[in-house]
Each structure stands twice: as C-alpha cells, then as structure tokens.
C-alpha cells in the first residue's frame, strides 16, 4: 500500500520521469523510493507533503489514515534500519525520515494542511503568508474575541471564549472542505486565514485557562 | 534573541493604548492583521478640522514587536498632517526599533494600519455634504 506514492503528481509530469540510480546507475523512476534494480534507497526528492505520505491532495483527511501512512513510510526509512549501511544510504534515510516528520506535522493540523494545499494548487502563494489583510468582518470578530479573552476573569468566562472559538473553527473546517472540493481557491484562502486567527485565539484561551487553574 | 531596548521599552510601557470613538466624524480607524502570525492591530487617529492628527490610540494583540511598532507609530503621527502620516514607512519603524528580519512584517503591519486609519478618515469626509467637508475632500483629492 505504501508504494501508492505514485499518485497522479501532475506537477512532476513536465519534469524528467526517469533518472539514474546513484548506486547501480540503472534507470529508476524519479518517484521511486528504492531502486528496482539494486534495491538501494534513493535520495529524498522534493515533493508535496500529500504525495510524500501517499495521500490524496485534498483537505478532508482521516486522522487514522494519516497515522497509518506515516508509520508505514517511517518504518521503511527510519535511520535505525540503516545503522550499519554505508554513509550515502544513511544520509538518504535521514533525509527521508526528516521529510516524513515534516509532512506528518503539516498535514496533522487543519490550518497548516489548508495552507499547504493552497500552495500545491498555486506555488506562487507561498510568499504571501505574511501579507497584511484587510477583511473588516474577520478582523472585527478577532478583535472582539481577543478583547473578550483579555477581560475574561473567571474560568467560566474563559471557557465561553474557548467554546466560541471551537465553534468558529469547526465552521471554518467544514467551509474549507467544501471550498477545496469545489475548487474555489479564493474562498479557501480567506477561510485558511480565518482559521489561522481562530487557532491562535483558541491556543491562547487554553493557555489562559491552564494558568487560571494554577 | 535579544531585542533592542526600544522594543522592550515600548512593549513594557506602551504609549497611547486604548480606543477612540470610531463613529466620531473626526476619528479614522485602521484595522489590519497578518494571518501568518495571527496578529491584529487597531490604530485610530483623532483629526482636527484643519487636518492635523491631534491624538492617536492603538490596540494590538500580537507579539512584542507588533505592539512596539504600533506604539511607536502613535507617537510619531501626533502633530502630523494626514499626508505626512502616510509618509511613514515600515523601514523607518524597523530601523528605529532595530527589528530582526523575521519581525519586519510587524513594522509593515503598523505602516498599513496608519494608512488604513487615514483612508478611513478620508472616506468619512468624501461625498459628505457641507461646505467644510466638501472643501476638505477637495484638498484631499488634490493631494492624491
């Protein structure tokens, strides 16, 4: 199942599809993880996090499937398996393991998964992450929630902020599922920005709730 | 990472924290945010009839650099005309506070906030009937 890696990576379609194995010089598919002639581990090549974990590039994700795919790949690439291998293979395994960890972390959070999926659809988008936004409805909502959190004094008041944030986050997530499914990327982008804000408020509210307990 | 003492000073003793009445005709409100860090910044200016910024307030939920940048800008804009205020560049803010490269976007946010506040004030005064306002709107148009 783990070799289902070779999904329809349309981005790589234009690039060379075959290369030479670093070890035996035999022809090997650029997406291959191990050489099919000599069986040696291949270098870790740049790809998106979905492809890396053999998952469909979509927003909806079953956490169990993410877990299974991650463990499945990690089992084959973990540096422990290459402890006695030559240096080149050790390096490749370490790079694969690192890339798998990153993919797992990015896809595990709905906010970073949404941003990454936007990047997959539009690679230019990457540099826009810190752009100032001017979306009055969202900013007023954020300001109000922030003020409510800042003035919350009792555990109950903090819990109210957490509940409001959680509800807004869930709404955002189902909106993102629909937006990506309908290929409405502008909508998905504004929802992803919204989710970033809500996640942050939720984190800080939980932090305040914890310090309130102590 | 060690922050410049000016950042720490503005962060620990922020100037001009608070709100102005945003429905007041003489008040311009700028509300901006940077989704990458989840910061939100509100900057308000109180403008006199002859176009001088008499007072400025801010409220920022974000990191120390974002708070320091907005605090600094409220100090800088007081006494300035609207045109002078929008000349404030993020590079001036970043330089004054010696912000590290990863925090440059905080100064960009402060620049965008003052521009948004001025734009909001001007929008309130464009197309409003009444001689004083009409005259003001004309000078604004001429300036742009």
Question: What are the SSEs and their pairings?
Answer:
The complex is a heterodimer of chains A (214) and B (144).
Chain A: E1 18-20, E2 27-29, H1 49-52, H2 63-77, H3 87-108, H4 110-121, H5 136-151, H6 155-181, H7 185-213
Antiparallel strand pairs in A: 1-2
Helix pairs in contact in A: 2-3, 4-7, 5-7, 6-7
Chain B: H1 5-12, E1 27-34, E2 39-47, E3 53-61, H2 64-77, H3 82-85, H4 90-97, H5 104-125, H6 131-143
Antiparallel strand pairs in B: 1-2, 2-3
Q: Could you name the CATH homologous superfamily of the largest domain in chain A? A: HscB, C-terminal domain
The top level CATH class name of the largest domain in chain A: Mainly Alpha
Task: Give helix % range of chain A.
Answer: 55-70%
Low-confidence runs of chain B: 129-144
Mean pLDDT metric of chain B = 86
- Derived from helix and strand composition plus strand pairing, the structural class of chain A reads mainly alpha
Radius of gyration over C-alpha positions of chain B, nearest whole angstrom? 15 Å
Instruction: Please identify the oligomeric state.
Output: heterodimer
Tell me what portion of residues of chain B adopts beta-strand conformation: 15-25%
Q: What amount of the residues of chain A lies in strands?
A: under 5%
| Biggest sheet character of chain A | 2 strands, antiparallel
Q: Roughly how many Å is the radius of gyration of chain A? A: 21 Å
What's the helix-strand series of chain A? Answer: EEHHHHHHH
Q: Can you tell me the residue ranges of chain A where pLDDT is under 50 for at least 5 consecutive residues?
A: 1-13
Count of spatially separate domains of chain B? 1
**How many structural domains of chain A?**
3
Query: What number is the mean pLDDT of chain A?
Result: 88
**What is the highest CATH level, the class of chain B?**
Alpha Beta
Distance between the termini of chain A: 47 Å
What is the level-2 CATH architecture name of the largest domain in chain A?
A: Up-down Bundle
């Amino acid at each position: 199942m783990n070799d289902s890696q070779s999904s329809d990576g349309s981005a790589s379609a234009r690039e060379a599809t075959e290369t030479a194995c670093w070890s035996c010089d035999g022809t090997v598919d650029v997406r291959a993880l191990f050489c099919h002639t000599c069986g040696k581990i291949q270098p870790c090549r740049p790809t998106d996090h979905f492809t890396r974990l053999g998952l469909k590039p979509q927003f909806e994700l079953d956490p169990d499937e993410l877990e299974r795919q991650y463990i499945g790949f990690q089992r084959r690439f973990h540096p422990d398996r290459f402890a006695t291998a030559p240096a080149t293979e050790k390096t490749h395994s370490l790079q694969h393991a690192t890339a798998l960890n990153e993919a797992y972390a990015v896809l595990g959070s709905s906010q970073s998964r949404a941003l990454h999926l936007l990047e997959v659809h539009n690679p230019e988008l990457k540099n826009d992450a810190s752009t100032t936004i001017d979306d009055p409805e969202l900013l007023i909502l954020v300001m109000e929630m922030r003020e409510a959190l800042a003035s919350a004094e009792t555990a109950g008041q903090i819990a109210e902020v957490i509940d409001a944030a959680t509800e807004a986050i869930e709404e955002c997530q189902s909106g993102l599922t629909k937006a990506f499914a309908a290929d409405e990327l502008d909508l998905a982008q504004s929802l992803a920005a919204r989710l970033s804000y809500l996640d942050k408020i939720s984190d800080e509210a939980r932090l305040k709730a914890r310090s309130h307990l102590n | 990472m060690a922050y410049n003492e000016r950042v720490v000073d503005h962060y620990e003793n922020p100037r001009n924290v608070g709100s102005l009445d945003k429905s007041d005709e003489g008040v311009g409100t700028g509300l901006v945010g940077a989704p990458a860090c989840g910061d939100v910044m509100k900057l308000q200016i109180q403008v006199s009839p002859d176009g001088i910024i008499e007072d400025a307030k801010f409220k920022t939920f974000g990191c120390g650099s974002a708070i320091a940048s907005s605090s600094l800008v409220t100090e800088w804009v007081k006494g300035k005309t609207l045109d002078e205020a929008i000349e404030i560049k993020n590079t001036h803010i970043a330089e004054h506070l010696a912000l590290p490269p990863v925090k440059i976007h905080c100064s960009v946010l402060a620049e965008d906030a003052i521009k948004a506040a001025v734009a909001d004030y001007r929008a309130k005064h464009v197309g409003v009937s009444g001689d004083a306002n009409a005259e003001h709107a004309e000078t604004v148009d001429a300036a742009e």
